Amino acid sequence: MAFGKVLDDKTSARIQRTVASSISRKGVDKKGTAFQMVLLTTLFITMLILVVLIFDVVQGGWEVLTTRLWGFMRGEIGSGTFPERLGVQQGLYGSFWIAVFVAVFAFPIGIGSAIYLEEYSRKNKFSRFIELNIRNLAGVPSIVYGLLGLFLFVEGIPFLTGPNSNGRSATSAGLTLAVLVLPIVIITAQEALRAVPSGLKEGSYGVGATRWETIRYQSLPYAAPGILTGTLLSMSRAIGEAAPLILVGATTGFLGSNPNILDVGSVRERFTAMPIVITEWTQKTNTVNEDVFIPSAAAAIVVLLVFVLLLNIVAIYLRHYFEKKRES
Amino acid sequence: MTTTQQVQHVNSPETKQPFTVEDLQMNPARSNRQKAIAGVFAVTAVTSIAISGLILWTLLAEAWVFMVNVDWASVWDIGWFPRRGIYDIKTLIVASLITTGIAMMVATPLGLGAAIYLSEYAHPRVRSVIKPVLEVLAGIPSVVLGFFALLWIAPNVVGSFSANDAGSLAAAGIGVGILTIPLITSVSEDAMAAVPSSLREASQGLGARKSATTLRVVLPAAISGIVASLIIAVSRAIGETMVVYIAGGAAQTAIYTDFPTEKGLTMTAAMASQGSGTDNVVGEGLTFQSLYFVGLVLFVFTLGLNVIASRFVNRIQEKY
Fold it and tell me: How confident is the model at residue B318, as a pLDDT?
């Protein structure tokens, strides 16, 4: 050291002790501790709400689920005069076929748009316009999509979507929800494709692969987990969504047939879906049959939550798993 | 295969022909396939524009019929009775604003607090547990929150300070608020994570405490993202349907109210209840068109909010 020692050892040790004790002493930063406590409390309240919510629903549906689970899964949306016939099969049927329509229409179109936007299009005004448009579509309230579905699929093409049901069918509902989740599929797939390292693509071009070959054999396999996460999340969104279905004409009361889940023939008939079943039964609060419908509604929520949360948990797990794998 | 063979052929000493452009060009079949595939993807990308166009056209076409034919005195009246020809839009807008306001009063402190804690304080291991739990909360369908709002929040929370323990705007608002917590948390946490750590280190290097660093350095730097998260949450809350439809307390019709603990009908709930129950949405006169008129008003609200929010997000991107 060019300057030599300014302080002797003893003094510097004392200063060190004083400084250390003044900054590490407990309770010295009272405001900071209080702030941290407030933050922790908000987090705690949020978690508590989630716990109370799930506990309330499971407790409400417990009796139905434990005493007559099979009958409940096979039952009808029907009337409250026969509580033993109440069940979710028609709802499961509608939700299943809605999911099929979403998978068939929204996934290919959504992933295709994402590939176009990330891999093909030049960054010009037109592609910026498409991207802005997709972002705005993602923010459109779901009920507005219901208006679109009502106008387009129910009133517009009933001869295709439901010749016997005035267009009020699982087909119309599925198409409407496919339109609704399309922006989500596009945005998540775009993010996944954007995360593909450019070295991978450049290497592929370098050995003479064409653009499509590069996408097919490099970008898509690398982005697949991310794209899959996005599709699973949009699927869970679609089967939990109720507002557009109400406008598309989901049946809330007695439904004639009780089709098997895999019965394709009924997709153009009158339909209902899990969230609609729940809504309908919940709205029986303060009516004569309240004590039949409310526990059933809670049980139906448990059934729906099992599907939705399973999709979510698989998606979240996949993402974390692949993120970790990439990092290592 | 063919390309390599050609190249070898050209280079072989017997021929000694010079390279031509054709030799380096792609096999025409292969190149046509490329163009076809690119064309298919371009078509899929245009679908989203078509959807936007259809939404606008649908809303405008039907709302136009309503606006031309309606007696405008009935749009500013005592309440929302579409089947009787009374379409008081202010009843719906005020109810929407009340539920949204209550939702934001619930969601802002909880969502922001959780975001700040997760971004600045939480141990990585705590974070890795809590973030997925919040994502689970985000994945809960809105009908479930509707059930919870009507059967738990209304009697236990709203019922504790008012006489109304059935559905009310307040119960619905709290339910919507719970739904928007994860949205606020994830967007504003992203904004705080985007603040360069050099700013935090500089602040701590100057001797600022953790809380001062968070409140005076990180939050101001992330403020546009945080504001954007709140605006997006407002837009989501206004457009939320099922919670207010189930827990709002009013069915089909509503008399004007600006009292949160009364039952009320928001724009979204009015549309849903008009579409449900009966076999046909079509009712007397302009009932069907009034649905699209309300839809247009709602669309304008949410689109405006989303555009403002994206301005805020863009601003933060420019800064660093």
Answer: 47
**Beta-carbon separation of B40 and A112 below 8 A:** yes
Among candidates A136, A146, A316 on the partner chain, residue whose Cβ is nearest the Cβ of B303: A136
Query: What confidence tier does A165 reach under pLDDT thresholds 50, 70, 90?
Result: confident
Q: Is B79 on the interface with A (CB under 8 A)?
A: no
**Domain tally for chain A?**
1
- Between A202 and A328, residue with greater pLDDT: A202
Distances (CA, A) of B52 to A54, A90, A129, A139, B46: 37, 32, 12, 12, 10
Alpha helix (H) residue ranges in B194-286: 197-205, 210-212, 219-221, 223-239, 242-247, 267-275
B52 near A CB under 8 A: yes
Task: Please report, for chain B, the start and end positions of each structural domain, with discontinuous segments joined by +.
Answer: 21-69, 73-319
Q: Is B23 on the interface with A (CB under 8 A)?
A: no
Reading the block at residue B194, the tokens are 């985007």
- Closest by CA to B196, choosing from B316, B96, B116, is B316
Interchain CB distance below 8 Å, B136 and A309: yes
The pair of three-digit structure tokens given for residue B60, joined into one six-digit string: 């405008």
* Percentage, residues of chain B above pLDDT 70: 90
> Could you report the predicted ipTM of this complex, rounded to two decimals?
0.87
Query: With a CB-CB cutoff of 8 Å, which residues 97-136 of chain A face chain B?
Result: 108-110, 112-113, 115-117, 119-121, 129-130, 132-136
CA distance B231 to A180: 21
Mutate to test the interface with B, among A43, A172, A188 (most CBs of B within 10 A): A43
d(CA B136, CA B159): 28
The answer as to whether A76 is a domain residue is no
* Distances from the Cα of B263 to the Cα of A33, A109, A294, B95, B250, angstroms: 42, 42, 20, 9, 6
CATH number of the structural domain B73-319: 1.10.3720.10
Residue A281 lies in a domain: no
